[in-house]
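Please produce the structure of this protein holding iron/sulfur cluster.
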Amino acid sequence: MECPSKSTRKRQIGYLLTDWFTKNRRILPWRTNPSIYNRLVSEFMLQQTQVATVIPYFNRWIGQFPSIEALAQASEEQVLKAWEGLGYYTRVKNLHRTAKEIIKKLTNPDAIEPDIYPQTPEEWKLLPGIGDYTAHALASIAQNQCVAAVDGNVIRVLCRINGIQQSFESKNQAVKYIKNIAHFYIPFGKSANYNEAIMELGALICRPKNPICDRCPIVLHCCSFQKKLNYLQIPKFQKIIYVKKTAQRIFICDGQFIILKKTNTKRLYNIFELPLIDDIDKKMFTQEIAKINRSIANERIEEIISKPKYLPKDLKILTQNYPDLIFLSIYELKNITISGPHRKWLDKQLLAYL
Ligand code: SF4
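Below is the modeled complex.
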C-alpha cells in the first residue's frame, strides 16, 4: 500500500491526533492548571526524568513556590532542598536563575501572567537552562504559538508514520532532520494540543518497544504499519559506546557523626556526597561494604563503597586535615541536599553501618 498523499495526510494526522488527545490524555497536575509558570516548572523537571517520578515533586514544589515571584524570592538552599532526589541539579539552579531574570525584567509590577514571559522560542532561549526543545515546548504548549517541539517521542512517531529508515548518528541529528517536517502537521490554531498529542501518542501508544498499533488513531496513515516495515527499529541510532569507570568512595561514620564532601563541580555545586577515597588519607585501612553500578550519559560507573576498619578517635580532627570534607551530625543529614544516588545509598544500604 502506498503512503496516502502528503498534502491531505499531514493535515488529517494533525486533526486525528488532537481529537485523540482530547479524549485520551492523562490527567497531570501541570495540565489541570496549565499556567505558564506551572508549565515552566514541569518542563524543567521532565528533562531526563519520568512523569511518574516528577508528579509528587511537582505538587510539593507548587505548594512551596506557587508563583514565579515566590520562586525568584526563595534562597538557593530552599530550592535545592525541594529538588533533592530529582538529580541533575543544574536544572534547578537554572530554573531558579530563570525565575529571577524574568522577575528582574518585569517593568510593570501589575502585569498579568502572559505578559511577563518571553513571547517567542528565541526569547525563551535567552534564559538559563532553556534549550531549543524547552523553548519550543513552552512557546507551543504553554502559549499556543505555531511552532513544533521535537523530543524523542516526536522523532519516533514521525519517523514511523513517514517510514523514515535512515540511521542517525545522534539524537541531535535526528532532531534537526525531523524539525524540518514536524511543523507541517500542526492544525490551525491547535499548536498546544497538537504538540502535546504527538508526545502523548509516543508515550502511551507508539512506544519504543511495544507500539499498540491496533489502538493508534493514525494507523491508517502510518507508512511503517501499512508497509509492514520493522518499525521497532525506527528510528535507527548508531550504537553508543559506553566508557567504563570505577569510583572508590568512603563511608566514614561513627553512629552519631558522618563525613561528607560538599562538591564544587559546576554540575553539583553546593550538593553533598560521599567522599572519594582520594579525598582522604589513602593509608587508612578500609573494608569494602557495597558495590553499585550506575550510568551517567555514556559512562557506566562502578561505585565501590568502603568503610574504615578503624575509626580515628575524633572524626572532627580528620576533617581538619582535609578542607573539602564536612563533619555533620546524623540529624543534620535531613536538612542538607545530598545528590540523588548518594541519598539513596545512605537511606537504603548504608544505614545498617551507622
Ligand atoms: S501505527 Fe503503530 S508504529 Fe504507526 S504511529 Fe501508530 S503506534 Fe506508531
